[in-house]
């Protein structure tokens, strides 16, 4: 009798495990959003950051409704949008620094040319 119930019990365990949304999914998305904000994504990539927040809100709503698979997908999308916002922000900031360094090099070259004796 126990042997005949074992497959049904295991199937139930697997099914229940797959329908739960780990809190870590929501926490990871929230952390990624906060990290992107800390790097300045609010100023550099507000649209992407908005999408991340929106997806996280949808994930929380789906989890409350018991739609755990949809909540998991939305939390994953929120995480990806937040990471994209962070990476895009860092890239834009690096580009700005690069342009400033190039401008400084240009000024230094002009100064060197201006102060160099003509007979060299």
How would you summarize the topology of this molecule?
Elements: H1 2-19, H2 23-38, H3 41-44, H4 46-65, H5 68-115
Helix pairs in contact: 2-4, 2-5, 4-5
Characterize the structure shown.
The protein is mainly alpha-helical and 120 residues long. The protein has a single domain, classed as Substrate Binding Domain Of Dnak, Chain:A, Domain 2, CATH 1.20.1270.390. Helices cover 88% and strands 0% of the residues. The longest helix has 48 residues, at 68-115. The mean pLDDT is 87.
What are the key terms here?
mainly alpha, Substrate Binding Domain Of Dnak, Chain:A, Domain 2, 5 helices, rod-shaped
What is the level 1 CATH name?
A: Mainly Alpha
Q: In CATH terms, what is the architecture?
A: Up-down Bundle
Question: What count of domains describes the coordinates?
Answer: 1
How would you describe the oligomerization state of the chains in this entry? Answer: single chain
Which fold name corresponds to the CATH topology?
Substrate Binding Domain Of Dnak, Chain:A, Domain 2
Radius of gyration: 26 Å
Measured between the Cα atoms of the first and last residue, the distance is 101 Å
Number of helical elements = 5
Strand content: under 5%
What's the short story on this structure?
By secondary structure, the chain is mostly helical. 88% of the residues lie in helices and 0% in strands. The mean pLDDT is 87.
């Amino acid at each position: 009798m126990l042997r005949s119930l074992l497959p049904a019990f295991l199937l139930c365990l697997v099914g229940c495990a797959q329908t739960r949304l780990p809190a870590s999914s929501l926490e990871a998305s929230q952390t990624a959003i906060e990290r992107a904000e800390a790097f300045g994504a609010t100023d550099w990539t507000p649209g992407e950051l908005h999408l991340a927040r929106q997806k996280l809100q949808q994930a929380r709503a789906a989890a409350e409704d018991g739609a755990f698979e949809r909540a998991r997908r939305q939390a994953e999308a929120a995480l990806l949008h937040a990471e994209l916002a962070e990476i895009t922000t860092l890239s834009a900031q690096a580009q700005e620094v690069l342009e400033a360094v190039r401008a400084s090099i240009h000024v230094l070259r002009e100064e060197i040319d201006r102060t160099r004796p003509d007979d060299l």
